[in-house]
Amino acid sequence: MVQVRAIHPTHADGNVDIQAWMAGLQNQVELADTSRLQKACELAQEVRDHASKSEDIWATEEVDCFRTGLEMAEILTTLQVNEETLVAAVLYRAVRENKLPLNDVKEIFGPVVARLIDGVLQMAAISNLQSPTRDSILGQSDGQLTNVRKMLVSLVDDVRVALIKLAERTCAIRAVKNVDRKKRYLVSREVFDVYAPLAHRLGIGAVKWELEDLSFRYLQPNAYKEIASFLDERRMDRQDYIERVLADLTEQLMGAGVEPDIMGRAKHIYSIWRKMQRKNIEFSQVYDVRAVRILVPELTDCYTALGIVHGLWRNIPQEFDDYIATPKENGYRSLHTAVIGPEGKVVEIQIRTFAMHDEAELGVCAHWLYKGTDVNSNGSSYDDKLAWLRQVLEWHDEVGDGVEFVNQVKSDAEQDRIYVFTPEGHVVDLPNGATPIDFAYRVHTEVGNTCRGAKIHGRIVPLTYGLQTGDQVSIMTSKGGAPSRDWMNPNLGYVNAGRTRAKISHYFKQLDKDKNATAGRQLVEREMRRMAITGLDYNQIAAAINFKHVEDMYAALGAGDVRLAQVINAAQQQVEPNLKSKKQLDLSLLNGKTKSTSVAANDVQIAGVGNLLTTMANCCKPVPGDPITGFITLTRGVSVHRQDCLNIMNMAERDRQRIIEVSWSGSSEHTYPVDIFIEAVDRSGLLSEVVMVLGNENVNLGNISTNVDKKTHSATISMTIDIPRLDLLGRILDKISQLPNVLDVRRQKNG
User: Fold this and answer.
1) pTM metric for this prediction
2) What is the mean pLDDT of residues 469-480?
3) What letter does residue 695 receive in the DSSP assignment?
4) Please, are residues 316 and 374 in contact by the beta-carbon 8 Å criterion?
């Protein structure tokens, strides 16, 4: 059922006896050194005593920041956490109520404790910013409630932060019994909607059940009282019956050589109500009101016990679940069965090992109990829990032995979504790496079209700024504004979402075709001039990317349907592929017939799989160099699309499981020396930034020379780099041109 607030040992004057409290704590958890925890308790008590009544807005006769800290520590003690976590718990409310500066905590107790408290403060700030609702915002499939949960989880980089927050919310829900109805409802709603599911996701049954029962008590008081009265009426009869069942089971299991720990299991009120609602049944039809739990030493003993139970009494087939063979999403493992026991009454029986029981009650916290054992065991519990945890929390603390294993967990824990706020406080989910422009187009196409700037938490940021979870984004627009063609250049980093790119492409498509063709021609001419490329057959390039006429290619390029990188890649096809001399890359045409540029199926490589049938989609006609993705069809193998293709984005929403990662076949590439010339206004650090750009692209620098004119404060840089492809050259030129003080950057040809 529900928990009552703890009564702390006190002195005669009513103050908490810290020494006695510490002694009681040590009976539940082993602490190598209790001096820091005692110091934290004394500090929390001191700042509580020195706070004025006007500052101590939370204080009552029973509740204040010090007593709440002790209660949080007691809750966490049952989860077998370490000493740093307990210290952070004791101090958290004092910091939260601005009675104790976080810097003081860091100075006295170290950076780890301060980081834990800061993490909990971030979770509190997010959950308080916007009251979660179930409504969808901006056409998102998930409601705001789901997005808030996801955001909270994504902010947590240490599982202990979530544990402290759960302990704090447990104290909060216990304390609302005597507050006004409105506050009681708000706290209960938040706990029920956000934190009880988080406890469930972490597998911490001991906390989850209490949060659910207490919040249910205040949200549905009539239903709670009704079920509680049913349970009270039959408590004595049920207890006598369970004792007879326990005696029979103990005798049979001991006779089979199994040493069990058997107990009656309390059924939680909310779970009874939920089952009645889900199955549309009366209280009398709830089978597991009479429930027994059998704990055994080994996994094999579970199935031995199951056989004995089914041999004693007839089982109900539809009520059997094997969560050992198929664990729940949060790692929960157990055998569940219902039998017709003595007197024809239905009894639910759970069977699990002692380790499984600790995992069910403690969830991820069971890791501290079994650290170093589960990792190398034949059982899958630890691995399953980590596999689940990768989807929820990125944590890099205490994951067992092996650096390679730790690194793997870190890499797999990367989030593929971020969660940001609108100015009104609504949560919006975006792909990882999204920019303010992506956000603007998510809000509304017109907002994106007229976007001219962005603010994050009230401060202006560049449009290439990478949004982070928790950012509050405000878009500045200009009346009559229009998207820039530079936004479509992936090298500049303005746009990272496929949907955004498709919307911008659609905008330019609506413009006059002649204007698009002119703009496209200018883009190509500028790029080729910058890279000193001459003598290209543009009719051949247009044919290579599926256009009959050059003007159609220019119009598509100007409209955003074709990327400049595709044109550069097609130009690369006119380069002698087997050129092995170290002369400057000369883009002369091949002698005789040109090499075919049609895309073959073997040009595509499917991640982790070989020799699968692939077909190029006719809707977007991908060519080598395009970012691509695959869709598993029913009859044509894997259909390959451009990543910004509207058809593949729609199919991904309907059948995400049929999306597969594909890439262009990576054959070995020759590199060729290319001279680069840079003009710039001289400044400190310019050369190092240019070299950093080359390093980030994994480009080898052959030689470099600089010339500085002190009178004009101008600088020129000449260098030779080794590149395999023209599109890479274009990307390097783009990135260097974006550096501060750079006036011009171009390829320089000899002669």
Assistant:
1) 0.49
2) 86
3) H
4) no
Q: Identify the architecture of domain 228-364 in CATH.
A: 2-Layer Sandwich (3.30)
Q: Which CATH architecture has domain 18-219?
A: Orthogonal Bundle (1.10)
Query: What's the CA gap between 536 and 588, in Å, rounded?
Result: 8
CA distances from 631 to 58, 623, 639, 653, 665 (A): 56, 16, 5, 12, 17
For the chain, give percent helix, strand, coil, nearest 5. 50, 15, 35
DSSP structural state of residue 407: H
Q: Where on the phi/psi map is residue 630: left (φ > 0), alpha (ψ -120 to 50), or beta?
A: beta
Residue 454 and residue 473 in contact, taking contact as beta carbons nearer than 8 Å: yes
Q: With H, G, I as helix, E, B as strand and everything else as coil, classify residue 628.
A: strand
Domain boundaries, the chain: 18-219, 228-364, 371-412, 417-509, 599-667, 672-748
Q: Which of 50-54, 293-297, 727-731 has the highest mean pLDDT?
A: 293-297
Encoded tokens for 66: 């010090």
Q: Indicate the DSSP class of residue 421.
A: E
Angle at 654 between CA 650 and CA 659, to 5 degrees: 80
Q: Helix or strand or coil: residue 718?
A: strand
pLDDT at site 352: 92
Fold of 672-748: Alpha-Beta Plaits (3.30.70)
Residue 708 phi, psi dihedral angles, 5° rounding: -120, 130
Which DSSP category does 379 fall into? S
Cα 575 from chain centroid (whole Å): 44
Q: What is the per-residue pLDDT for 294?
A: 92
274 or 600, which is more confident?
274
- Decide if 167 contacts 76 (C-beta within 8 A): yes
Tell me the fold of 417-509.
Ubiquitin-like (UB roll) (3.10.20)
